Amino acid sequence: METGFKLLRYLVEGFLAAMATMPRQLKVKTLEGGVLTLEVMPANTIEQLKAMLREKKHCEDFIEGQILKVKVLVDGLLVDDDGQTLESAGLLQAESEVTVMYHRNEVEAATKEAIHAEGLLQVNIPSSLTEIPTGAFQDCNQVLTVAIPDSVTAIGERAFHKCSSLVSVAIPQSVTAIGESAFDGCICLASIAIPESVTAIGERAFYKCNSLVSIAIPQSVTAIGESVFALCPSLKTITIPESMPAIADKAFLKCSSLASIAIPESVVRIGDYAFASCKSLASIAIPQSVTFIGVGAFANCKFASITIPQSVTRIRVNTFHGCTSLKSITIPGSVTAIEHQAFDSCTSLASIIIPNSVRDIGISAFAGCSRLASITIPESVTAISDRAFIDCKSLASITIPQYVTAIGGQAFEGCESLARVTIPESVTTIGDRAFQQCGSLESITIPESLRDYDRLAFAFDDTSKLQVKRH
Questions:
Q1: Are residues 38 and 111 in the same domain?
Q2: Distance between CA atoms of 22 and 392, rounded to whole angstroms?
Q3: Does some domain include residue 299?
Q4: Is the pLDDT of residue 20 over 80?
Q5: Residue 408 carries which DSSP code?
């Protein structure tokens, strides 16, 4: 008898185990009166069931699909333990009635402290607010989309700073100012419409918005802050309005996908590093209205040619540093100085004409311009700075003007193709290593005033090639 009971229990347990591995049909009612039929396993969890029901909803809109919430009821009672299996929760019992409730996961909140819901959600800003407070939703990764009412006139500093899930925000026509770092670090924000009511956009407002592809700055905007769109690597197009007089420092720094940009005639100032490391920037036209181009403004850009307007008087430090595709540049007669490293490492630059207006050529101004075969230094220049033409490996000849009094240290070091040099009577000092590693140098004509060979040994590899020019 006992053996029979054991056998029966074994068979029942086996049957139940087999049933647990067999798919079952689950009918789920909707509040609208429909019925959804799902194939489930008894071991599926409530969380897995909710995922199936979410897929059944077929939300075509991405945002709606993400903020869709699902609730499951059994016989009118909410099942709130997502870890339960369908079997343990009683959903698979024949007499059980299972119902699904769909709703949008949205909250009305002025700050993140008012959010008590879980998961991705839409934030509806209360209509009682006139300004979204400083840091209101900073570091809130739940925020997927934001609805801002017409009562709001300003978006405060860091309002949505590092809301890493934010993909959509509608800014109403009532808003006039977007504060500093308002959307800084919103890495999923792919597009945003700035209304015509906005007049100012603060510093770093859209800094590191990695997914931002395009943006149009409306005509109402008269000022944008420093680094406003810096490090937006996906930004391909941007419209700058005629209302803007200046492009701020680092405004588009490291926007590596930006291929072209139109600078309007209203702009008079391009700030420091404004377009630095925009490595896809293949063309740009600087209007005649521009009088100031800042330090490193176009460093490490891709364009092959550029014309500097007549209104510019100085080419500042690092302005075109590392522009390896730059083949030609037009420097106007208005320019009086080419500052340090202005064209450093422009490895495609083959020739350049420096106008007679230029008086100063800075340290390393043309350093590493390995394809620079010829250059005309105007009579207005009185000194050639340290490392001015270092490693210009293709430079075959150079005429040093008669008013130059000093040639700086390493000025022509590493100019491997340089065959002949004539140093005028005006030169009184030649810096250390000025012409060292110039392997092709066959003759060097120097004025009688520079007969101190011991001193010149520091400037030249081989003083035996020196020829003294007699009066």
A1: no
A2: 77
A3: no
A4: no
A5: -
Task: Please tell me whether residues 99 and 151 are part of one structural domain.
Answer: no
Q: What is the mean pLDDT of the chain?
A: 90
Asked whether 123 and 143 are in contact (CB, 8 A), the reply is: yes
Q: Say if 276 falls within a structural domain.
A: no
Residue 22 is given by DSSP the state S
Are both 329 and 204 inside the same structural domain? no
Total domains in the fold of the chain = 3
Band the pLDDT of 58: cuts 50, 70, 90: confident
Which of 175, 196, 212 is the C-terminal boundary of a domain?
A: 212
**77: which 2 tokens?**
């009672």
Return the amino acid letter for 394.
S
CB 222 within 8 A of CB 198: no
Beta pairing class for 246-247 and 269-270: parallel
Contact 209, 187 (CB under 8 A): yes
Coil, helix or strand at residue 3: helix
Give the CATH number of the domain where residue 77 resides: 3.10.20.90
C-alpha atoms less than 13 angstroms from C-alpha of 159 in its C-beta half-sphere:
25
How far is residue 254's CA from residue 444's CA, in Å, rounded to a whole number? 45
* Residue 448 lies inside a defined structural domain of this protein: yes
Residue 271 lies in a domain: no
Residue 439 and residue 434: Cα distance in Å, rounded? Answer: 13
* Domain carrying residue 82: 2-104
My answer on whether 431 and 373 are in the same domain is yes
With beta carbons less than 8 A apart as the criterion, state whether 327 and 346 touch: no
The reply to whether the predicted model has a pTM over 0.70 is: yes
Tokens 């490996």 belong to residue: 393
Give tens-digit pLDDT for 64-78: 888 888 899 999 899
CA separation for the pair 331, 348 (Å, rounded): 17
Residue 223 to residue 248: CA distance in whole angstroms = 8
State the residue for tokens 């690597």.
233
Among residues 81, 104, 127, which one ends one of the domains? 104
Q: Given this model, what pLDDT does residue 116 score?
A: 87
DSSP run (H or E) holding 406: strand 406-407
% of the chain with per-residue pLDDT over 90: 66
* Residues 232-268: tens digit of each pLDDT: 999 999 999 999 999 999 999 999 999 989 999 999 9
Rounded mean pLDDT, 330-353: 95
